[in-house]
Design brief:
The protein is α/β, with parallel strands linked by helices. It has 3 domains: 6-120 and 298-314, 3-Layer(aba) Sandwich (Rossmann fold), CATH 3.40.50; 132-293, Dihydrodipicolinate Reductase, domain 2; 336-421, ACT domain (Alpha-Beta Plaits, 2-Layer Sandwich). The chain has helices at 6-26, 79-88, 98-114, 131-138, 153-165, 169-178, 187-190, 193-207, 226-234, 297-314, 355-365, 395-405; strands spanning 34-36, 52-54, 68-71, 92-95, 119-120, 144-150, 217-218, 237-247, 253-263, 275-282, 286-293, 340-341, 343-349, 370-374, 384-390, 393-394, 411-421. Helix 3 (98-114) links the parallel strand 4 and strand 5. Helix 4 (131-138) runs parallel beside helix 8. The radius of gyration is 24 Å and the shape is elongated.
Length: 422
């Protein structure tokens, strides 16, 4: 095992608890032989039992008492070097490293196949939810057309707490950090990178294209204000960060990680706290929703252990590529003109006559139709929030209009645009 943090410790406890059952019921005998971690003396734990401790992470690839390397360190290095060395030595690998797989997954899967070594990666997306296995195998008989889901528990906790309590983003973020739902540096979560890595993996598996991380439109949650949730309630909607990929009839993929106003009638609007959910849409089968604990030591450890058991029982399984496809087609990315939705526009302004007229004029010049205007009573006229909802409009056309609107002199906050989904 490389890495002995939250997930690594949960995995070792789970192996200790399940070892007898796995041997008795499934014929799988497991033993953790080596734990590698930088600054290993700080991680040593008496309860780990009879294991060897080392700070030489790369030695796991050649250690004679290692059959399978479990990588739980995260990041690109030394994880990438370790996995390549393990495959070169025909050692199987199980990893939860979404960043590494999003960046180098194709090359690593090819190297594993070339050396007859298995690669397990279920824990890289949505914690304990078996979504990658489902996309890779259970939906092989259908043509998938879309994926959409809540893939970051930190963001979902923050959004649902803001919705319930009316508290400000910064206050709820501090609580999320105190409870262990957010890192000390939450940037990857709240700016959409974490969900973006997971979306890369899901999209590659679903659509067989070499999806690059940089192709994903990403917009974080830090600009949301308490009264956004007030207006969302008036619209019978909830604010949720959704990671989504849709295949257009042209074959192009439309990808984004951004906050949506989701209809209260949607299952995704009812996903709260640190939970995850993924909706998969097939041409023949329609919609399926997978829901469960998407983060944390125990849920992620169950996914890691499931991969370990599968490899112990089945070996490399060369007929089932770990990423769903042996080779990938070149990426075909959709254009901003292809993203069309009704939008929620939130403004915070220094109140004066003519503001609505100025906004309406610019929107009309771009052939954008207003659906409704909302202004809840608010005492502070020097920072007055209000909302305009729009009929369906393309992202490209809206961006041009917003660039012009942002130059007007009455704003105290930059305008915020969020798509609204059924």
């Amino acid at each position: 095992m490389a890495g002995f943090g939250t997930v690594g410790q949960a995995l070792l406890r789970l192996v200790q608890h399940e070892r007898e059952r796995l041997a008795r019921d499934l014929g799988v005998e497991l033993a953790v032989s080596v734990i590698a971690n930088r600054d290993v003396d700080r991680k040593r734990a008496a309860w780990a039992g009879d294991v060897r401790w080392t700070s030489d992470v790369e030695s796991l690839a050649t250690a004679p008492d290692v059959d399978l390397v479990v990588e739980l360190m995260g990041g690109l290095e030394p994880a990438n070097t370790l996995l390549r060395a393990a495959f070169a030595n025909r050692r199987g690998v199980v990893t939860a490293n979404k960043m590494l797989l999003a960046s180098h997954g194709g090359a690593l899967a090819a190297l594993a196949a070339a050396n007859g070594a298995p690669l397990g990666l279920e824990a890289a997306v949505a914690g304990g939810i078996p979504i990658l296995r489902a996309v890779r195998e259970s939906f092989a008989g259908d043509t998938l057309t879309a994926l959409s889901g809540i893939l970051n528990g930190t963001c979902n906790f923050i959004l649902t707490e803001m919705e319930k309590t009316g508290r400000a983003y910064a206050d709820v973020l501090l609580e999320a950090q105190r409870l262990g739902y957010a890192e000390a540096d939450p940037t990857s979560d709240v700016e959409g990178a974490d969900a973006g890595y997971k979306l890369v993996l899901l999209s590659r598996m679903a659509f067989g294209q070499e999806v690059p991380f940089d192709a994903i439109f990403r917009d974080g949650i830090a600009r949301l204000l308490p009264y956004d949730f007030v207006y969302a309630q008036k619209l019978d909607r909830s604010l949720r960060q959704l990671a989504s990929c849709r295949r257009l009839d042209s074959g192009k993929l439309l990808l984004s990680v951004r906050t949506h106003l989701v209809s209260k009638g949607s299952i995704l609007s009812r996903v709260e706290g640190p939970f995850n959910a993924v909706q998969v849409t097939g041409r023949a089968g329609g919609d399926f929703v997978f829901y469960g604990r998407g983060a944390g030591g125990d849920p992620t450890a169950t996914a890691v252990l499931a991969d370990i058991v599968e490899i112990a029982r089945s070996g490399a399984r060369p007929n089932v590529p770990p990423l769903g496809f042996s080779t990938f087609q070149p990426f075909q990315g959709a254009d901003p003109e292809d993203f069309v939705a009704p939008f929620y526009l939130r403004f915070v302004v220094k109140d004066r006559p003519g503001i609505i007229a100025d906004l309406s004029r610019i929107l009309a010049n771009h052939a954008i139709n207003i659906d409704a205007v909302f202004q809840a009573p608010y005492p502070e006229k020097d920072a007055l929030p209000f909302v305009i909802t729009l009929e369906p409009v393309s992202q490209a056309e809206l961006s041009q209009a917003l660039a012009e609107i942002a130059r007007l002199d009455f704003h105290t906050e930059p305008p915020l645009a969020l798509p609204m989904t059924p």
